Please model this.
Amino acid sequence: MSQFIQAARRCATVLGATALLTLPALSATAHANDGYRIWLRYVSVHGAWLHRYRRSASELVPGRARSPTLSAATEELERGLSGMLGRPVPSEPAITRNGAIVLGTPHGTPLLRSLHLGLRTLGKQGYVIRTLQIHGHRVTVIAGNTDVGVLYGVFRFLRQMQTRQPLEPLAIASRPKIRHRVLDFWDNLNGSVERGYAGDSIWKWRELPEYLSPRYIDFARACASVGINGVVLNNVNASPWIVTPLYLAKVAALANVLRPYGIRVYLTVPFSAPITVGKLSSADPLDPAVQAWWRTKVAEIYRAVPDFGGFLMKADSEGEPGPENYGRTQAQGANLLARALAPYHGIVMWRAFVYSTNPHSEDRVRQSYDIFKPLDGKFDRNVIVQVKNGPLDFQPREPFHPLFGAMPHTHLMLELEITKEYLGQQTSLVYLGTLYEEVLRADTWARGPGSTVARVIDGSLYGQHDTAIAGVANIGSDRNWCGSIFNQSNWYVFGRLAWNPDASARTIAAQWVRMTFTNAAGFVRPVVRMMMGSREAVVDYSDPLGLASQMAGTHYGPGPWIAPSKHLPPDWSDTYYSRANAEGIGFDRTASGSDAVAQYAPHVAAEFASLKHCPENLLLWFHHVPWTYRLASGHTVWDSLVLHYVRGVAAVKRMRSTWRGLSRYVDPRRFQLTSAFLTIQLHEAQWWRDASIAYFHSISHLPLPPGVAPPPDSLKAYEAFCIPYLEGTPGNGAACPPDDAPVPR
Ligand code: BDP
Model:
């Protein structure tokens, strides 16, 4: 018998648990491998379990009433242990044998009070897991300063088992480096999801508050398992209805379900709500009537949801109202809400995604910095400015946003996109851990070397007292939550990096694979390799060498020919970004062009501005170069561009054949889904390659590098091909008129 199993057996008794809630729904059907159970599958580590542990439920500790959070922790531990060890695991009234698990807080569990657990430095959300001798028995203690810390510790302990790590001796201590770890739902109140590719919204507004779907609890468990502790329930393109009494009752019901799992709810509200909901004539932040309206509204929200987290605001962006409408600054707008929330310790996450689509405005990627940088120090303490990872919009690759490191007197948070809006949407296999890691490790040089984005947002660079990170959720009503099995890894890695932005994307991928599929090395190794290379593959076949925004209007598939028009502002077109012309390709953002490089700290600016030192994978973001410009590899830009497309297709081919060789490790259902999606992705990669080569060739007129097959169709055919309806795309109409345009091969 393996040492692991022996240790698992020893850790099989639970002390100090009182189940207050009924077990949440992991229904019988969930046992089919449809992906519902995500990484919390708790599959058996050993078929037979020691019968001496079989006890009746009457032996559960009658004890004192426990908090719902501690009950959730206990239930999760029981669920995990009984799943992995094959039998229901009873709770024990006292430590009567080696191997008991003690969980609780020193405050609530007298036994823990006398122990030196090392909790003092772990704050409200941290935990310890330690193997200790108590009354002569060897026990495992899972403890936190608060109940939610205990819950996080339980998930950490279960992960240890799920990934077959040693169970004793344990001396684990952890605390999150970022305080608010938030999922942003772009869910509309009509049930659709903007940029959502996993079905409808999981929030069933019409059924609320009366009916609480059991999925809410499973959602909360998944979030807590990776430490996510906040949820913005609705789309940043917000409906004012969300703050009406009708919806606040629904919001309160959701908050009640999520609370035991340490999750607070937040809302987004249109800046114009004082007009639309409050019937005032203005939403001017300096108008006392407007200020009073927000104060009253916020008080009403806190009556319904006493631990309400606060607001996420999209203002003066893409048609959304904002302070600019009244000639006020972003800071004046943010502070209006901050002051209403401050008495309740609520926060405002104020988005820096502000830009103008005026055809004459400056380089789009400069705008957010130019608007926000001068406002450094002008935001109230409970405002956190939410900055997308790059200065454009969640592209497959962008440089880090220049605001990171540039606002030392402002709380800044990072916004990542988990839903793969620009990276193939639901079907492509793209592990985003590497993208997130690249951003977090990017060095802003704001205070010399080592001033990484991670250190800006975890507060260590400038000593921020409040820290936050957000990810735009990829969760919907699909049975597998995220539209595909591998998309679940992006929810997972977001949470794990939010807890510890210095963690490794590779390690997290390996843990996710082990928990989601199997611990078999013959599976874990190739799948992790495939995941780690998957983001570069999509960059290669869609936006190589620093190109960006070469997608169709639906953000799916290629559209490099899309040019500005009467109906399309320049920076919503693709040609604006590639700037491909007879001479060359790329956007000159050096001093001879838009000078966006100057927004970075001098060391970084110098690197990006230098043709020689600019990282090749950002070359065309910062430079317009002749087609014949030679890269370090010796290839011309033209050849290299083409070879990247080719390489991207080859990478997807390899991913597909890797996966096909792994069928013996995976249940047929998840295997086939992933296989089929990889086939779709291969078509997609080929389509990107062919269409992009056809388009850029029509401009460069250069021959293809030797051995590269020409696109099978004409540029016209690629341009004419259009997918009319796509999930997640705003608006109900078809994105293109029906016609007989040929389907590219
Ligand atoms: C873009 C999306 C759009 C969002 C917007 C935002 O295409 O649907 O509303 O960002 O972040 O990525 O506000």
